[in-house]
Design a protein that fits this description.
The complex is a heterodimer of chains A (about 220) and B (about 70). Chain A has about 220 residues and is an all-alpha fold. Helices cover about 70% and strands about 0% of the residues of chain A. Chain A has one domain. The longest helix of chain A is centred in the first third of the chain and has 28 residues. Chain A is elongated and about 55 Å long. The chains are: A mainly alpha (about 220), B mainly alpha (about 70).
Amino acid sequence: MVRPLATVLIFTFVFGRLAKLPSDGAVPYPVLVFAGMLPWFLFSSVLGDASNSLVGNANLISKVYFPRLIVPASAGAVAIVDFAINLLVLFGLQLWYGVWPNWHIIFLPLFIIFAVIASLGPALYITALNVKYRDFRYIIPFLIQFGLYVSPVGFSSAVVPDEWRFWYSLNPVVGVIDGFRWCLLGAESQLYMPGFLVSVAAATFLLWFGVSYFRSTERTFADLV
Amino acid sequence: MTQNTPMAMEETRPPERLLILEKGRAERNYWTDLWHYRELFAILAWRDISVRTSRRLSDWPGRWFVRLPLC
């Protein structure tokens, strides 16, 4: 709980105060950042936990057969619990600033599923790689940190120039974060539809790719881990 | 008489799941297998959640951080 709040504080100061980036309409900057931070934390903890899950459960994997997909998927379930706690913090923050969600909030469960899909794809791919090439775990924190700045966590994606926005949405996290802001921040936040659809397509492709790579390498896990 | 022995009871109950080992079977039944092992999914998830929350609650908000310099 301290970690997201501290990150929101820093991002509000750096992007909101120092860089003076505009918020979505009249939404207070901390709320904007927190609404983006929420799915980002889900994404990064699924990526981080899942990638180490197979190596961490090496004892189980090398002894009995079961579909290995269960292990990284359960790391995803753990991340959702943390996500739920952070969601409560966000509601507290919205209460404090008086930002009320409108009817868009009924789509929130759909966007949570989308966030999980978008994070499971890359997570499964990296998990499978991490078993084979063990040094990969040194790259994961770097990837997560890199992704934090590539994704619109600390700023609104409306800041991105219009001609790049479509290609920018190839990063599925962009669609997830935009969707969350659209759900939670009321009428102030607009959803850029073509970009969102591109994000959905990218996330679906990554999930398919991650699952098929995972399945093709799964048989060798017990020998390698 | 043999009806009450555990062996006979075992036979009357339909088998919960037959484990057949043959080539290519795990690939074909991948998604049904995944569903079959759903309890393992819950157990693994619950183990991680309970470990994390108990660790967090036993060290509520970072007592070690304050205590360490004082010791």
